Amino acid sequence: MQSLQSFRILVSNRPHLPAKSSNLRQIFFTGGKWTGRGGSSRLQPNRRVELTPAEPNILPEGNGRLIGPIFFTVGFTGSCLSLAAIWEYENMRKKALQFKQKATGWIQRQQNLKHGDLRNHMNHWWNSQTEEQKLFYGILLANATVLLAWRIPSLKNFMTLYFCSNPFARAVCWPMVFSTFSHYSFLHFGANMYVLQSFMNATAHSMGKEQFLGFYLSAGVVSSLASHIFKTALRMPGLSLGASGAVMGVLAYFCSQHPNALLQVAFVPGFTFTADSGLKALLSFDAIGLVMRWKLFDHAAHLGGALFGLFWSYWGQKEIWGRRVHFLQVWHEFRTGTRSDK
């Protein structure tokens, strides 16, 4: 999931963007790949990671077993989407009951005025952010925490075992999730968060924050599964980490929903192309890289994330998320202790 494609949006993100020159988006590309097979024993950009007996926790153990990761991916994705639906239900229920809390809210605001200007400014700034921006800051904080954890020498083996995805490692399933929040390089971290923020506002606004979070986590674990399948088929152990698989899912969803939005490569003025053309070019590049077995990027993870984004855009959002009403009815009955008559 290592490679990064970073996309800079120069205009405000909106759910619908007509194909006009004023709706121009700018793209730049930067990358880093950390996969393990020979080379240095340190994680470094664009280099391989050596698996040595000195680090027994990351030694390949037998064949990469795919049955466990496949079932884990299905279960994790279903759980994410189910919890996202419940979160949406609880938020809607909370808003429906907010009118009962107006007096309490007014008293709390009066009390907050007594706690100094700094706190007031921070509260004002946070409350001024959209729901999509608040969600992004949460994802950003999670990734930043993992990035800093890589800087602690005593955690090196733990981080390599649980925050790098490798189908031949002892720990296989949960690292498929944790690795999507893991970056070793500040450049890698910055670029992935940059592109996520660029495309997240429009995508999350279209989906809703609850559906977006379930979609984002699902895209990340599906991209890890795609990387596992490719590495296992070729018997090629390697460590992968980074959010680019999940980010590719967001990108693919955005491009399929707004195919006529104009993109522009950074530092190449005057060269523009549609989102649809850009997505096709990226998919072609990763497909060629997969066939040619290029090592610079984790092309399998990119394709897995992008294909999940397209799947969700064209089918999953309607046929899976759109049918959550029956599930929420069961949750409502459990939540309220009531049972609807049929």
Instruction: Calculate the terminal CA-CA distance, rounded to whole Å.
Output: 48 Å
Radius of gyration: 22 Å
What ranges have pLDDT less than 50 throughout 5 or more consecutive residues?
3-63
How much of the residues is beta strand, in percent? 5-15%
User: Given the structure, what is the number of helices?
Assistant: 12
Q: SSE order, as H and E?
A: EEEEHHHHHHHHHEEHHH
Q: How helical, in percent, are the residues?
A: 55-70%
Descriptive notes:
With 342 residues, the protein is an alpha/beta fold. It has helices spanning 67-96, 102-112, 117-128, 131-149, 156-162, 173-178, 186-207, 209-233, 244-257, 275-292, 299-319, 325-336, and strands at residues 5-9, 24-29, 34-40, 47-49, 262-265, 272-274. A 4-stranded mixed sheet has the order 1-2-5-6. A two-stranded parallel sheet has the order 3-4. Strand 5 (262-265) and strand 6 (272-274) form a beta hairpin. It is globular. The protein starts with a strand and ends in a 6-residue tail after the last helix. The model is unreliable at 3-63 (pLDDT under 50).
